[in-house]
Amino acid sequence: MAKKAINPTKSLKIPKIIIISAKICEFISTKLVTKFAAKIFTTPIKHKVPKRELEMDRKSLQELIPIPAIDKSVVTYSYGQSPRKVLLVHGWSGRGTQLFKIADELLENGYSTVSFDAPAHGKSKGKTTIMSEFIASILEIEKQFGPFEIAIGHSLGGMSVLNAIKDGLKVEKAVIIGSGDIVQDILDEFTIKLGLKKEISAHLKDSFETKYQVKMDDFSAFRAALKVKIPVLVMHDKDDPEVPVKAGIHINENLENGSLYLTEGLGHRKILGNHNVIKKILNFIKNP
Q1: Is residue 121 domain-resident?
Q2: Helix, strand, or coil here: 141?
Q3: Please, which residues bridge with residue 232 across strands?
Q4: pTM (2 d.p.)
Q5: CA–CA dist 87, 250 (Å, integer)
Q6: In the prediction, which pLDDT does 6 show?
Q7: Domain AB hydrolase-1, which positions (predicted)?
Q8: Neighbouring residues of 261: CB distance < 8 A, sequence distance ≥ 6
Q9: Helix, strand or coil, per DSSP, at residue 88
Q10: Domain containing 236: what range?
């Protein structure tokens, strides 16, 4: 399949068949459409590993480890031999090798990395998951592979890193890239993309809180940021079509020791492989 140029101003769209199905469910009943929307929201797309990630995939030591807190297992990737370890956390519908360019540069600079396929992602089993399971996976991986000097998270992985630090993850510094912020905003945006009435977003929030026995707002990144004391580099593209730049700005405003680095024209994913972005990450990690 030929590569297409990335247009950072164009967001990934929900397939029309899903939007039509959502509207039919909404017409039938609020309960039915809430159940349908919840299923779509918690079901990531498993993409085939692209060629550019195959080297990291081949060279990593891969293990299937249990996450007792959620009664699931995840596949981990240990990349490099250095005792100076960095934890990498991918975003929604991502995989453990997605931050390969960052991982390669870290290896060249004396670090090793540990990453993982979150539940229902990549080679990890399951069909549905939610952020609390990303966080539980991070905390268990720390027990088995830590300590880590640095944690780097992209998108939902960035939100998860901040929440994991709030919940006890011990790292010296953290980097979050294209991170989401306010959970209700994310639910509202998702509801809009499905073409549903805004009130469905509130029902969706209630259904998740009942099912997972959590308060969704507690996972908002800015709330976690308020309790994070270590240095955090917040990176976000001004043209990110999936997570508005205001999310990164707001998170940074709530960090005690945060620094903000904004890019242009890189969108939500191309930012992960940008030379200047990676250089900035290395400078942040290395300098006091």
Answers
A1: yes
A2: helix
A3: 174, 258
A4: 0.91
A5: 24
A6: 34
A7: 86-179
A8: 233, 234, 235, 236, 277, 280
A9: strand
A10: 47-181+220-286
Instruction: Return the DSSP state at 72.
Output: E
The closest of 137, 143, 144, 47 to 153, measured between CA atoms, is 137
What's 267's domain CATH number? Answer: 3.40.50.1820
Q: Are residues 31 and 74 in the same domain?
A: no
Name, in order, each residue with C-beta under 8 angstroms of 62's C-beta and a sequence gap of 6 or more: 75, 76, 77, 78, 123
d(CA 22, CA 27): 9
**Could you tell me what percentage of the chain is helix, strand and coil, using 3-state DSSP and rounding each to the nearest 5?**
45, 15, 40
Query: In this structure, are residues 86 and 173 in contact, taking their beta carbons and an 8 Å threshold?
Result: no
* Closest to 120 (Cα-Cα) out of 166, 79, 72, 164: 72
Place of tokens 């609020």: 30
Sites in the chain below the pLDDT cut of 50: 1-11
Cis peptide before 8 (omega within 30 of 0): no
pLDDT in tens, 155-170: 999 999 999 999 999 9
> pLDDT value at position 12?
56
Regarding whether 68 and 196 lie in a shared domain, the answer is no
Calculate the CA dihedral of residues 232, 238, 241, 243 and round it to 10 degrees: 20
Hey, what amino acid is at 72?
Answer: K
